[in-house]
Amino acid sequence: MFGYMGKILRVNLTTNEITTEDLDFELAKKYIGGRGLGTKLYMDEVDPQVDPFAAENKIVFINGPLSGTATPTGGRYMVVTKSPLTGCIASSNSGGEWGAYLKYAGYDAIIVEGKASLPVYLSIDEDKAEILPALDLWGKMVSETSDMLKEKQPGSKVLTIGPAGEKLSQMAAIMNEKDRAAGRSGVGAVMGSKNLKAITVKGNLKPEIANPDGLKAVTKECRTLLKENGVTGGGLPTYGTAVLVNIINEHGVYPTKNFQGGQDPDAEAVSGETLTEKYLIKRNPCHHCPIGCGRWVKSDKSPDGIGGPEYETLWVFAGDLGIDDMEVVIDANYWCNELGIDTISAGATLAAAMELYQRGYITDEMLDDEVILKFGNADSVVHWLKKMGNREGFGDLLARGSYRLADFFGVPEYSMSVKKQDLPAYDPRGIQGMGLQYATSNRGGCHVRGYLISPEILGLPEKLDRFELAGKEVWAKVFQDLTAVIDSTGLCLFTSFALGAQQYADMLNETLGTDWSAEDVLLAGERIWNLEKLFNLEAGISSEEDTLPPRFLEEEMPDGPTKGWVHKLDELLPLYYKERGWDEDGIPTEERLEKLGLL
Amino acid sequence: MAIKIKLFANFREGRGKIVEMDYTPGMTGQDVIDSLGITAPEIAALIVDGVDGKVDAMLTIPIKEDGYMAIFPPVAGG
């Protein structure tokens, strides 16, 4: 079998049974790998109505056919399960090294089922896979857990949850290499619900390539395109994703104070330019990545270096909280990594709490007169992140995410979320296509499911009028479908700033021995998107939830270059459903499902 | 009267964060980038007096007397 290792490891934590199964090559090709194949494998075995924390829920850890090959950025993996935050399919992606090393250990995927009676970790060293006790690891932060496991399993890469996952926070992340995160949708809590603390992987196996010379040539072509591209060869390696702070702010779509405003006069203090000038030690690339957007930075508390913040993290712990202190952001990022909690959702939940405090719903008494959750209060950030990650006091309510927090006070409209997943760093009132994407993303509020910021703000591949509605449903579908493909290959989404569907088809063809066109690849992406939609519908997530918080539909942006705008979802959504070949209620038609081979 | 030109990312190299220029009636973005030694193909995003659009079109729009421009090279993230 080319590209894939041909093996799935099945781990039953209830019975302690570990078995190896063959990967169905035809099934794998139909869904590619990663997000697509992971979702298919998951859906074939789990009832969509399952309680995410029940032993009957499963977790699929899966890499892609290009993971562990020489292709640029080939090292990512997906975690697929049902989200305890949204109730939707959760497909959470992470970079670093672990995904490639799962391949080197000899596996395309691990399916974890059941529940261990006591904390355990899974150790995989090629043919040797064991469920081992983890009582000494349970309760420990991510770094300490990782260090201890590297001593127990030398040469391994470590994937782990932190206290947030153990305590079933709906925002818990799964971490690897200490500061890489499968961050969104609470996947860490599903792992915690199974008493599974960590998975270590080690091995020296390599996938077989159908046409090694062909892959070498295509890889060289893609690396050249990445190097020559202004974004992947310039902006991202130099400034990291933090470079977005200023451009998003200048367009007046940089959400401030829980999306109450769109422009921050102090954004420069937490910009990519400032991070590079004052804090950067070096780039921190993922496996086989020529872009190297990751940052290794210094701070007052970590003068020798620490994993640096991404754009969303910078925004959420600065502009969204009314703070402009890079030290606070770096420290908050560190604590989210250690606790194993999603920075976007954690920060957004603090922002919602601060607005609830502003409006009198949360009082000093509720906070036990501890550090006040007020916009601009820098001291509140790490204090309440720790409480959140450990579910202490008011932190127990915070740990449930902004939607459940605001709903507790009877005002869910103050949660800036879609399908209960917190929105990221772009105000949809000034980016109509992005708002449509937020509303229709299969995993809830998310920017990476279809990054329309690219054409609407950044001018890539061409500049669209961000306020215009015409054609946005077409762009949304194409971006969503192509993203589903890339998420399934094992490659990083950032390659798409320089590469197109043809390059992904070429890399897959040389690896797998297939003969796909760009259209075939996009059709696979559409198939994966519809598969996810089917899961959500069966899980009870109706198309009524394809919406945005009332703030964006009813309140005009009060300031800046986006002043006066609301999001026109009611005009865009029917066009999107039609473009997708769905009926008026947003349900995939039989005709479309048949075309996609889903019937 | 001076107009403000905000520069970002590598456009700041050798130029600084904000450049002030004397306003002349009818001056456009093209005039500004000519004097800064920046070419249109190098620009990914451009804002003139709070309005963004396709770079080539934005370069022809007259800047206001107390106006500003924000000029970005290719940047991205997610």
What are the salient characteristics of this protein?
heterodimer; A: 599 residues; alpha+beta; Aldehyde Ferredoxin Oxidoreductase,  A, domain 1; Aldehyde Ferredoxin Oxidoreductase Protein, subunit A, domain 2; Aldehyde Ferredoxin Oxidoreductase Protein, subunit A, domain 3; 3 domains; 6-stranded mixed β-sheet; 39% helix; globular; B: 78 residues; Ubiquitin-like (UB roll); 5-stranded mixed β-sheet; 5 strands; 15% helix
Write the layout of secondary structure elements.
The complex is a heterodimer of chains A (599) and B (78).
Chain A lengths: L6 E6 L4 E6 L2 H7 L2 H12 L13 E4 L14 E6 L6 E6 L3 H7 L4 E5 L6 E6 L2 E6 L8 H11 L4 E4 L2 H4 L7 E3 L3 E3 L4 H7 L2 E7 L9 H17 L2 H9 L4 H7 L21 H8 E4 L11 E3 L8 E2 L3 H6 L9 H14 L3 H16 L20 H12 L4 H4 L3 H7 L8 E2 L2 E2 L9 H9 L12 H6 L13 H18 L11 H12 L5 H21 L11 H5 L14 H11 L10 H6 L4
Parallel strand pairs in A: 1-6, 7-12
Antiparallel strand pairs in A: 1-2, 3-4, 3-6, 4-5, 7-8, 9-10, 9-12, 10-11, 13-14, 14-15, 16-17
Helix pairs in contact in A: 1-2, 2-19, 2-21, 7-20, 12-14, 13-16, 17-19, 17-23, 19-21, 19-23, 20-21
Chain B lengths: L1 E6 L10 E5 L6 H8 L8 E4 L2 E2 L2 H4 L9 E5 L6
Total domain modules of chain B: 1
Low-pLDDT windows of residues of chain A: none
What is the first-to-last residue Cα distance of chain B?
Answer: 38 Å
Largest sheet of chain B: 5 strands, mixed
Task: Please give the number of β-strands of chain A.
Answer: 17
Q: Given the structure, what is the number of helices of chain A? A: 24
Largest sheet of chain A: 6 strands, mixed
Largest interchain contact: A-B, 42 and 23 residues
CATH superfamily membership of the largest domain in chain A, which one? Aldehyde ferredoxin oxidoreductase, N-terminal domain
